[in-house]
Amino acid sequence: MKQYIQLTNEEIKRSFKLYMIVVLAMAAIELASIVAQVMYHERKVENFMELNRVSVTEALKQIDTLGYSEASSFFSYIILIGMAIVVIYAVQIWYRDWLGETKYIYRLLMLPGSRASIFFSKLTTVFLIIMSFIGIQWCVLQSGFYLFDWLIQPEYQNRSDLSPVRNVMRDFYTMNLIDLGIILAFSLFFVSFIFLLVLIERSFRKGKAIIRIGFEIFVPVASIIGILALLDETRLLLESEAMFLMIGLGLCYFTYIIWKSLRLLQRKITV
Amino acid sequence: MRTYKYILCLGVICILTLGVYVVYASSTEEPEFTIQTIQGTPNDRLVKQLQFEFNDPESYKTDYEVTLKGDVEKKRTNYLSEFARDYSDVTEAPRSFRHFMSQIELSRYEQDKEVFGLYVTKNGSWELQSWRRGTEEVQTYSLPKPAKTKGIYYRPFQRTKQKLYVKRIGDVVQKQGTNNIYVIDLKKKTVQLMVLPFQLKEDDEVFAIYQNRVLYRQMPDDAKTRVYLRDNSTATRLKFLEREEMWDTRVIDEGAVVGMTENMTETKIKWSTYDLRTKQFTQHRYDLPKRDLNEVQRFASTTIDNGLVYALIETKKNGTTILVLDAQTEEVRYEGTIKYDMPKSNLQLNEMTIN
After folding, report:
1. Does the structure show a pLDDT above 70 at B268?
2. Which of residues 153-172 of B touch A (CB under 8 A)?
3. Which residue range is the domain that position B170 belongs to?
């Protein structure tokens, strides 16, 4: 356990500077996008007033007021960038140990004790980063709302859209904590799957590795399509029962991913 | 402690930031609903089954189901429950019936709280199941292939005593028309062919059948609607029923009367009935109490079901006013309001369901 915590600490330490830079840059871009949206809207209204010689009320009837969901529209792109960064990081966290000048992986593999702690320390690191991204994004969304409320002139503001919850990310931050749990569980599953593919690639020669990776992707995708088609055709189960079946199969597959990854790390990967 | 500096640092960031979200999501205020009954009683058999669904825009996956007896049920959906959502509208039925109703190409019909599902098997025989709402009882009818049937598109449209009327729909009807309808005897578990003295096409609709009288709507090629009452061999055109807003009809008294709602105004609830027994057409109206002119009316609807007119008027100031009227006698069975207290958010009425 001590080794696992120490390794996790080490993994975070090696990425912490980059992590801080990414988080601060993304938060700064998001807040700047709010300022830009408010200023752009204000200028659009003023230009319309000048060109058509109408009052603010008339101009706002034509152009429409600005709500927070519209002002925060740029946030969805940042979330997509954040997701891409996590995927890249999940791959990079393994390859940097092999491909770096120090060949850090040899030191890790030579450590006494179970190699499972190497796997779980990397998984924990990526998972903590995902959790912090989700949490920080929420705080930026909240701060963005107060910034928006402070910047925009009251008459330019869409009153029906005046809540920090009514933002462009409301399908992500649904205010239902079960949804948060589902997002985190799915993230954990996806990161574990990437880890498995990386470990297969590291365990076998090029040709065999490609076949095995293809097999690991094809089998679950084909099984899901097959099961869904079978359920749809036979109507054996009701929707809720089909959902429980899929959750059960998902859990079984997750267990398989972890088992397979640990097996590869302990038996196939050699110094 | 310094050995674990980074893990602690990232852990604290996670706990603090996600903690803000968890606290925010958990601290959303709960509305307090007040039901005020003006006339009638919420214990009335047909009133107590009414359910009103309000949505909280601040937490849009949260709905409140309110009954007129004052029972409030909070319902939250999540990604998984949306994936498994049952759209069949028979979620309270026994599993076998829900399973039967989930079949593709099954026709569904509901009248007076009894839900019918008709499925045509590959060999042409009919499987019919029915379930009465509020019970656990499911009736199953396996019917041999009726005469002059082809294809799988048949839909029940009226139940009168122990008879269920079924019409054919689909491509064949659209092109050539048909003068056949089918009558299922629910007691004897048989199907009989009934020959109509006129041709029905896809867009045509039989509103009701009462003894030897048939009230139906035809859409000839010129796209003008014509409504007829066929009585033995004579057909009478009923021009007063040829208004587009009257097309949404419901049978009352097992087909003896047809009811149809009209556009509801701010001051009136309007609906009409046509009695096939006496051939009498009646326009009904109920005057609503006067309201402030500047009061914003957000939602208003009228529906006819179970021989009753259900009218809803949602206003910002008064909440949701519910009126339940007898479709034929205009007698007020229930009048009341649902108000809620939620200072930071305005709930929205999603729908009214009759369970």
Report:
1. yes
2. none
3. 88-196
